[in-house]
Write a structure and sequence with these properties.
Radius of gyration: 17 Å
Structural class: alpha+beta
Order of helices and strands: HHEEHHEHEEE
Strand order of the largest sheet: 1-2-3
Shape: globular
Helix content: 25-40%
């Protein structure tokens, strides 16, 4: 598992759990065996992974990626999600960027807070996560202890104009 450790970077030196290591191992295996992913996955890694119940019979894997690597993951998202769903026996895979909420600026401060780091913006981007090319769109509620709770699961073809 030491070779798969380079595919997961936890904050503040935390140790990944067994599920996160299995997702990191799957990413490492895809990079090692699949020539299409070799160059694309070389510099990409994940922050964490969660397995949640969407419905009693359906599970989803939430993979948290650093925001600065989101563009790299989006380039290969459809192929990567398809391969990961095969590896994890049909569970839905959703890629979510880690977004940081910055506090309001003080009145005397010269630095302005970027609009993308406001509470409203972060919650907006996390509330509706649509899987590109997938049959499922999952909406989440983001709790303060950094846990995603599935709000509802809707087929993508029902939602008109789903943002990817």
């Amino acid at each position: 598992m030491f070779t798969a450790r380079k595919k997961i970077a936890k904050e503040k030196g935390q140790e990944p759990d067994s599920f996160e290591e299995s997702v990191a191992q799957a990413l490492f295996d895809l990079e090692a065996t699949n020539q299409d992913f070799k160059t694309d996955l070389r510099d990409l890694y994940i922050s964490s992974a969660q397995l949640i119940d969407v419905t009693p019979s359906k599970n989803a894997i939430i993979i948290h990626v650093p925001y600065r690597l989101l563009k790299g993951f989006q380039k290969i998202q459809q192929r990567l999600v398809r391969e990961l769903e095969k590896k994890f026996s049909g569970k839905d895979v959703v890629l979510v960027a880690n977004r940081r909420i910055m506090p309001k600026t003080k009145s005397g401060s010269s630095k302005a807070r970027p609009r993308s780091r406001t509470l409203t913006s972060v919650r907006y981007h996390l509330q509706a996560v649509c899987c590109g090319g997938q049959s499922l769109c999952v909406q989440f509620i983001y709790l303060c202890n950094h846990v995603l709770i599935p709000l509802r699961s809707v087929p993508v073809d029902v939602i008109a104009g789903c943002d990817h």
